[in-house]
C-alpha cells in the first residue's frame, strides 16, 4: 500500500482543489447559502445545475440553472453528459460533467448543490469529495420556510415534508452538518467557509478523480 502524498502547500505549491457537495432537504436554504457565498466573493466555482422545469420569477438561465427542455435533458442522459442526475417531483435535475472537470483542472474548488440521493451518487463516483449536510433547526421551521416560499400548494408542501423527514436520516453519510437557522444565514455561510478552509489544511489532502 503506497503512502499518501502530503499537502502540496508544504512545498510552497497551491492546495489541491476540492469538490464540495452541499445537500439537504428541499427548502432548507441550499440556494440561499450559495447565493450569499457568491455575494461575499468566495473563490469557488459554483456548478450550474441543468433543470427541466420552467424558470421561476427572478431566476436567470445559466446563472441559477441551465434551463433545458425535457427532451434535451433526456438526450443529455443518453449521451452520458451528466455527472449525476435525478427526476425530482416529475422534473429532471443534473450536473454537467464538463463544467466540473474544467473547473477542477484549472485548480478551482467546485461546489455542487444537489439533493440527498444525488449526493449518494457523487459519493460512489468521487468518495474523496467533501460532503456538507445543510439541516433546518427543526421540521417546524422547515415547514415555515416552504410556506413562505409560495411555490407549492399545501399538498405539495406536505409531500415535501414527508420526504424531508426521510432525507434527514441521510446525515450520517455526510462529513459535516451545518444548521441553517431561519434569519441566521450568515452564520451558516461562515460555518461552511470554515469547514472548507480547514479541509484545505489537511496533511493528507482529499484527491478527487472523476
Overall description:
This protein has 210 residues and is α/β, with parallel strands linked by helices. It has a domain at 8-47 and 108-200: P-loop containing nucleotide triphosphate hydrolases (Rossmann fold, 3-Layer(aba) Sandwich). It is 38% helix and 19% strand. It contains 7 helices and 9 strands. It has helices at residues 30-39, 70-78, 97-105, 116-125, 139-149, 154-167, 185-200; strands spanning 19-23, 44-46, 50-51, 66-67, 82-88, 91-96, 109-113, 130-135, 176-179. The strands form 2 sheets. A 5-stranded parallel beta sheet has the order 2-7-1-8-9, sandwiched between helices. Strands 4-3-6-5 form a 4-stranded mixed beta sheet. Strand 5 and strand 6 (91-96) form a beta hairpin. The protein is globular.
Look at the structure and give the mean pLDDT.
90
**Secondary-structure element order, N to C:** EHEEEHEEHEHEHHEH
Q: Predict the CATH topology of the domain at 8-47 and 108-200.
A: Rossmann fold
Q: How much helix, percentage-wise, in residues?
A: 25-40%
